[in-house]
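=== RUN LOG ===
request id: a7f3
mode: sequence -> structure
chains: 1
length: 288
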Amino acid sequence: MPEVPEVEALREFLDGQLVGKEIVRVLPLTINALKTYDPPLSALEGATVTAIARHGKYLDIVAGDAGLHLAVHLARAGWLRWKDSFPPEPPRPGKGPLALRVVLGEGDGFDLTEAGTTKRLAVHLVRDPADVPGIARLGPDPLDDSFDRDAFARLLAGERRQIKGALRDQSLIAGIGNAYSDEILHAAKMSPFKPVKNLSEDEITVLYEVMRSTLREAVERSRGVAAGRLKAEKKSGLRVHGRAGEPCPVCGDTIREVSFSDSSLQYCPTCQTGGKPLADRRMSRLLK
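=== RESULT ===
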């Protein structure tokens, strides 16, 4: 799933490609992707794109004098594919991975696609981003200049969850998912199952600093990369996530995995759990 670094890179890419251009056609190709009906997508046709914003994992394309917002969440298997031109015949709805097509006045534009059979890509056309429930509930952005160490500590106060789950909660902190939570915890040398309430003040400081540096470095790696190559760039930059069985780049120990019903996490025992492997079963706990 695209997280803060990839969505931020897409935002910067679209800022250079879309702003100032007129939208001439918006073609919804799968009914389940469109989550709103008022205003209709046709309200975008003839509007000029004025800005591109990001809210956590959401892209926000702002267009027209009325400031309509086309908010897109790519979910786990969605992606944005830039096109310099399109075939003259419009695509057939419901065929293949295409979910939405946006065509600009110069003949270029983009497709939103989603692979697989589980369709979770979401498109909202709203007058205010806060009208999108997923955006309205977002916590602070971890890269925002106003999000300092003390603000982070206040968010964690009273938390009873494990660190991994807290970092992934979009209502607590916006934009961090499965991959970068693994990367942050590896860099911080913390077990994904450590309870937040057990963090010392020094550990909160370390976690905050590592979270910011890990995400900023990933944004820098992604900056300037063409949209079609961002997924590969993300994978190449990850040190532990998705690398079970490979040596840890820090200590050389074998990266381990814990699998759940619909996801998995990766970690280094030597770096993060005092050399102890985590039980690979649902509701895993540190082996005693």
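=== NOTES ===
The first helix runs from residue 4 to 18.
Strands lie at 23-28, 49-55, 58-63, 68-73, 78-83, 98-104, 109-114, 122-126, 256-259, 264-267.
=== END ===
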